[in-house]
Each structure stands twice: as structure tokens, then as C-alpha cells.
Amino acid sequence: MILYLHGFDATSSGNHEKMRQLQFIDPDVRLVSYSTLHPKHDMQQLLKEVAKQMKHSDDPAPLMVGVGLGAYWAERIGFLTGLKSVLINPNLHPELTMQDCIDRPEEYVDIANKCVTEFRLKNQHQAMCILSMHDEVTDNTLSANELSPYYLIEWDTVQPHKFPQLAAHLPKISQFKTA
What we know:
The chain contains 8 helices and 6 strands. Strands 2-1-3-4-5-6 form a 6-stranded parallel sheet, with helices on both faces. It has helices spanning about 15-20, 40-55, 70-80, 95, 105-115, 120, 140-145, 170-179, and strands spanning about 1-5, 30, 65, 85-90, 125-130, 150-155. The chain is globular, with a radius of gyration of 15 Å.
């Protein structure tokens, strides 16, 4: 089972396409949706939904995949639920990058402050990151610097921020899922 977390643009047709591509790894790909606008509520919603999905699966190696803001959540929810996660062009600091998009971006700071100290160290090797060299939204060199001590980093030389084509990375995602 693969749990897919969309980015800030929840209604993008690219989400369906990425889910379809992920079915080459596992036919059971499930969208885990959230509002994107209310971080505290989103965290509660995501934890409940992931727990519900886990009850209805017997997959010995479930995986979370998130893009952009969805990758922010995939890392945290994956850690809290013990699931491996794939972070595609993660929005690591939405409290800064979402200032003009949501009402209370400071809620992300509150979430970070309540998170387990050094959670990435405790989550080491439980996530892999796929970063676009040509991301028009995020400076992924900063993301790589922040995440590389803890997770495997894969660079993509073609895809933009929304990462419409996962094909080149499907074998590595599949291997990571089952390792």
C-alpha cells in the first residue's frame, strides 16, 4: 500500500497522474487528503486517516509518498506512525514559505516545537528524498543540506516542483519500499 499526500495544490490533475504512476510499484495507492490551510487540524486529520488506512491493509511494507507540502507531512506523519516515506521536493519550512497562502502559518512553528526532539535522527534511513535541480518554488540545495545527514537524496535533472513524471525514480522508490 502506498499512501499519497498531495501538495498545496490539492486539486491539481497531476495528483491523479502521480498516483497512477505509483501503481506500477503497488496497485494499492490511496489518496490521503487534507485541507492544506489549517496545519493543526491537518495533522490530526492525517494521523486519523493514516491509522484508518493501516487497519484496512495487510501490506507488510506500507509507504507514504508526499510532494511539496505533502512531503512535509509525509516525513512527520511517517515518523509518528513508523512508516517509511518518500519526500518529493519537500516544503520543509511552510511557516516561512506559506506566509501569503494560509491564515496561520505560525501553527507550523508550534507543530515543530511540539515534535520529538531530533526526530530526523530518530527517523534516520526511514525516508528518501527526490529533489529537482530545476525546482522553481523551493531551493532544493537547502533541502539537501538539511536532510542529507539523515536520508538518501536522489537528484532529478528534468522535473519541476510539481514533479509530474515519476517514471525515472519508480525503481528506486520500489526498492526503498521493500528494503
